[in-house]
Amino acid sequence: MMKVNITVNGAPTEGEIEPRTLLVHYIREHLNLTGTNIGCDTSSCGACTVHLNGEAVKSCTILAVQADGDKVDTIEGLSKDGVMHPMQQAFMENHGLQCGYCTPGMVMAAIGLLNENPNPSEQEVRLGLEGNLCRCTGYHNIVKSVLAAAGKN
Amino acid sequence: MTIIENRPNTVIGTRLLRREDPALLTGEGKYTSDLNIPGALHMAVLRSPHASATIVKIDTKAAAALPGVVAVYTGADLQSMWAAPMPCAWAVTTDMKNPPHYPLAAKLVCYVGDGVVAILATSETVSRDALDLIDVEYEVHKPVVNVEEALGDKIIVHADLGTNKSYTWPLKIEATPGCVDEAFKNAAFKVSERYVQQRLLPMAMEPRAIAAVPQPFGGDITLYSSTQVPHILKVMTALTLGIPEHQMRVIAPSVGGGFGSKLNVYAEELLCVALARKHKLPVRWVEERSENSYATIHGRGQVQYVELAADKNGKLTAVRVRIVADMGAYLQLVTPGIPILGAFLYAGVYDIPQAYDFECVGIFTNLTPTDAYRGAGRPEATYAIETAMDALARQMGIDPFELRKRNYIKKEQFPYTAFSGLTYDSGDHLLAAEKAVALADYAGIRAKQAEQNVDGAKKRLGVGMVSYFEMCGLAPSRVLASLNYSAGGWESATVRVLPTAKVQVVTGTSPHGQGHETSWAMIASEKLGIPVEDIDVLHSDTAIAPLGLDTYGSRSLPVGGVAIAGACDKVIDKARLIAAHQLECSAEDLEFAGGVFSVKGSPDRAVPMAALAFAAFTAHNLPDGLEPNLEAQYTYDPPNFSWPFGTHICVLEIDIETGKVDVLKYVAVDDCGVQINPLIVEGQVHGGVVQGLAQALFEEAVHDSDGNLKNGTLAEYLVPAACDVPSITTSFTVTPSPTNQLGVKGIGEAGTIGAAPAVMNAVVDALSGLGITHMDMPASPKNVWLAIQAASSK
């Protein structure tokens, strides 16, 4: 067992974990933050995307021990005082989600995308979200949501 | 019949944002694997690595000794626990062969992924670690994985049956005996095509998850499952395990997509319930993605032989169809019925005489069972007729749109009694097609194509059109009876106006992304005149909504939504009696609008629904004999299917040096009658189109000759990402359905039905100048490139 200290959504957390524990399992099982979903076993779907030190990463590609001492933000940490983050709001207003399973990862990836490129074209949004799969929306309204959050609609 | 349409101040027809979204956007939504269930045991299933083998010996000692492992069960260990084999609810013929299928194989494994051993452990990690410690000795047999080879019976999947043929299902409709043969003999033009509907992996983003939780009192058990069908699952689990039905409760928490793949009764659901009862502890299971690829059903899997006969003007005179349908190794819940759902649609939207000859054979192979996948039989049928129509147009040297125009059922022919005896409720194919043609700038594209697709052109432009019918809204119970389906097709709703005029709508539909909570509240709000935010929608829990037939086949709105409207009518009728009593008038003298009953001609004498709800609750002063409370249950059995329709046009460009297809424009003009919430309707079309486009361009479950799935992970199976697909131009025509009071039709599967043939017609159109007249799906760069090479070497 190994000890980790990770700041999650601004609060310090401490865990005793098996070294093989993935960050996503630490978040879901040790912290019971189940908003971060698991959709595959090949780091392909992006449902588990979180922010690690401000950057969007797939939390199934990282061991929890690798995040020791780091800052992690999950979907649960986005809304403040019951007010959704502008990206969450944009997804709601543009029907950017259906079943919602890819949504937390998609929202985290989309925020990461705008952090890097605040003024993306439609094609840049599509390419920027390449690592996140959705089976419901056909991406049309996801792309629209991200462009809206960037102030483009 | 009143159709709710174009009324002032209505809720119906507005783009109301979804009430489901805040929980899903903030991580508050709970899917089955998110549930916190203290003390639960975790199940893992060891699966056969062989497509056909006899289990000789299983050594579980090392696994059982692993700390944290609670129990290890083989199929033989559990055989006494099943009251019946796993259910198939659709014996399409009386002599259909249905080999017994149990949650774990006891002796023979029949596909890669067939369950062999179940492990219970105190953690998910340990349960999976223990799988590696089990030693199974198999005697391996040669499998049969190609459905047309299986037809020959050289290798037989289930030796006891003596054949791989499960059934032969014919539908021959002739105005006079022999008229199909006659039509082909006299045809000016004939088309004969073979199409392959490749196997697809449904790939709902949430893999399946299950938790079976024994309740502390009364021997009851609650099954949480990532399912589309909690009601069907409840009945079937009770029957399969011999549990009294009233002691089973099934809850579908938030469900992360289904697309038909969660319309089933799965081995793992039965195992979890059986083992939870045995151990008197909760048992849960979460599917891994690569496990999902062989443990969850596959879609499609058909070989289609389609022949069209036409007169000199291209008017269809007969249709002949032969289907070889791949059942996989066993019949799951509705496996054999899937191709039959398409059987009536091989004449598409065209006016044909009674000269139709269809036959489907269901064939076992050593592969994962097939079953419902978005569209279920209808995309396959639409693909066949619509690509064959393009082949006919090419042969005749006329534009595919012109050929379609000559054959469309005309607006004035509706309601239209088809060759099959089915009645198509309403439609205007030409209107939808003309709208699509205008939006796509069809004439402009054709002109550009003539300029661009010259000899030596590296990029070739193609345009493909599809006009479709979606036979949906499953289904009139009597029609299901005629198809030997073992349940009805009704839907139930309860509407309850609480004392404070808040409303509970209880529905038997079970959403998994479709936004029923929003749309159903809109319907009840419209009917009752109560603000939409005061209406709650309860669903997907058989203890709260005991009656229901769940969500599939684009049935939820045209059956379940209409049931809600019917329940509201009953509530209004009852409230009217109380209002008449209070206002001292006769019920007939009252009119009801905007949530208020008023005496006709004296609007001052009025009482709102809110006051009536409270009066019904206190019951202090009700008319004699009237029961207290304002609540009504209504079950709606639709008199007909609903028949949405539309025209889709795809414009694409193919790089003939790389074979890469770029979709430049996709136009979808759909008609699903009256729209409750256009925002949600558009979303259904977008998602459906991309799923159909994915079949056309990207997806295929590829097996080797030993029956191993070669691309069973999301790294290899090409579910398209945002950058792989175009944005979609959606537009609509509105032709209300005359068969229900809302005027609605389904829309969940239309996109998928239209898209695959629209894309493939465009692909072949782009390459036709190179001598290519046929292309199998998926039109991947490799397949397109190979086709171009083959054509150029001719």
Description:
The complex is a heterodimer of chains A (153) and B (794). Chain A is of the alpha+beta class and 153 residues long. Chain A has two domains: 2-76, Beta-grasp domain (Ubiquitin-like (UB roll)); 86-149, [2Fe-2S]-binding domain (DNA polymerase, domain 1). Helices cover 31% and strands 16% of the residues of chain A. In chain A, a hairpin with a 2-residue loop joins strand 1 (2-8) and strand 2 (11-17). Chain B is an alpha+beta fold. Chain B folds into three domains: 21-29 and 490-636, Aldehyde oxidase/xanthine dehydrogenase, molybdopterin binding domain (Aldehyde Oxidoreductase, domain 4, 2-Layer Sandwich), CATH 3.30.365.10; 32-141 and 207-255 and 262-295, Aldehyde oxidase/xanthine dehydrogenase, a/b hammerhead (Aldehyde Oxidoreductase, domain 3); 302-474 and 640-792, 2-Layer Sandwich (Aldehyde Oxidoreductase, domain 4), CATH 3.30.365. Helices cover 29% and strands 23% of the residues of chain B. In chain B, a hairpin with a 5-residue loop joins strand 26 and strand 27. In chain B, helix 11 runs parallel beside helix 20, helix 16 packs parallel to helix 17 and helix 19 packs across helix 20 (750-767). Chain B is globular, with a radius of gyration of 28 Å. Chain B starts with 20 loop residues before the first helix and ends with a helix. At the A-B interface, helix 2, helix 3, helix 4 and helix 5 of A face helix 1 and helix 19 of B.
